[in-house]
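seq as requested:
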Amino acid sequence: MIGRVLWVGVGAVVLAVWWIQDGPLWALIAAVGTLVVTAPAAFDLGARGARRSLSRAAAKRGLDLPPDPWIERLVMDRDGYLVTGMRVDEVQSLRAGHERDLRWFAGALEHHATHRVGRAIARLSTRGRVTDVFEDSAVGISGIVDKHPVRVGAPRWIGIDTATDPISTTVAVEVDDRPLGLIRLVDEIADSAAPGVQRLRELGIGCTLATRTTREKAEHVAAHVGIDDVRAQSSPEEVSAELNAAGVHAAVLPLPDGPADLRLVAEAYALARDLPARIRRGRRLALIGSITAGLVVATAPSLAVIRGG
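struct tokens:
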């Protein structure tokens, strides 16, 4: 607002000086010319240009700029940015020499599963001839694979007693009504997670892992990626609200549609934090340009040439 008042004031001074010296016509020309060339500084076009420049830079890198880059903590779930899915860690056959069969039958059937455990096991083999598929989210999946009845699911459903591991998931496989073996799966941690957490820390943004999974699994992921604040059995929204109520400026990292790179999130925050510096540079350039152009018009060498011609 102050810039616009000064802008109008400068125009009025130029108008008055020229009116006294050369009359109303040239006074009006000089005043209008001065207002036009000094408009970038008056209307803060440097700041607007800086914002447009920032938006173009973000779009070029495929980044979504955060609405508030000056947060203290970023609260995230484990899926998407930290964990991209599950992977098979161990295949244990209960019959000597049948590990290949275990991989084949389990993998072929799990191609028809709809959950991430099934997608991980499906990578063990190609598709087979599978019919009569039935999936029960509580226990597992069953079907006929190449004319063999197969079940893959909770060990208790298959009738196998096995020790529980707090950081892994174990499923059992049954073929032809006989237990064939066990498959152990663990979270597949994204390669970009640890560098992304480190980059956010360098920006002064701490990371909090909030997830509905067990504390053991949450702490296992957090230890691998360098997160020091773990909230198990909680949603990111709940934890963010608690932190803000405690006076910590926190925000929730939206859950991506699929595996995503946390380093890009850190880059977006770094870029958004650069906006004030960009605005200062833009305003400085607009002011220098406006003052220079205004002096040229107000002192009227150019108008003198036009008038003399």
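Strands lie at 73-76, 83-93, 130-136, 140-145, 148-153, 169-175, 178-189, 206-211, 229-232, 250-252.
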